[in-house]
Write a structure and sequence with these properties.
Rossmann fold; 5-stranded parallel β-sheet; 5 helices; 5 strands
Length: 158
């Protein structure tokens, strides 16, 4: 079965890591787990993951610091923050630092699936828009060039 994306699940609670990784693998994702923020940073390489699902409160490096350091290495990876201690302040801070979404524990797996699918759709749309913008710029620069070449060719063929 072809994998549909590479995901890292970061949580200091083993049962959460296992449940999330097993569920994501059943959906077709290739999953790697990390026990905390430092372990995640040790395993992370820019461009090697499509999605990171991370707990907020962890020993050593928490989810917000992990998010900050991941963003410095890879601005395109999708980052979902999960927490059992939700607050408006941490949700706002996570989104400001670049998290795509904020999920509170206990969570329903269908909700996690929906948020992941939505985040991939948004990323795909952003990538397509970037490609279209590139084509538009290429067109804008090539039209005057072709006009100039046409004028030169017309002068030569007289």
């Amino acid at each position: 079965m072809k994998k549909i994306g590479r995901v890292m699940v970061v949580d200091d609670e083993e049962n959460i890591r296992e449940v999330l990784s097993n569920y994501l693998e059943s959906l077709g994702y290739e999953v790697l787990t990390a026990t905390d923020g430092q372990n995640a940073l040790d395993k992370f390489e820019a461009g090697s993951f499509d999605l990171i699902v991370s707990d907020l409160l962890m020993p050593a490096i928490d989810g917000l610091e992990l998010l900050k350091q991941i963003r410095e290495k890879d601005k395109d990876v999708i980052f979902l923050m999960i927490t059992g201690y939700p607050s408006i302040e941490t949700a706002v801070e996570a989104i400001k630092k670049g998290a795509y979404d904020y999920i509170t524990k206990p969570f329903h797996m269908e909700d996690v699936k929906l948020r992941i699918e939505r985040s991939f759709e948004k990323k795909n749309l952003r990538d397509r828009l970037s490609t279209i913008q590139g084509f538009m710029w290429a067109l804008l620069f090539s039209i005057p060039l072709w006009l100039i070449l046409g004028i030169i060719l017309a002068g030569i063929l007289r």
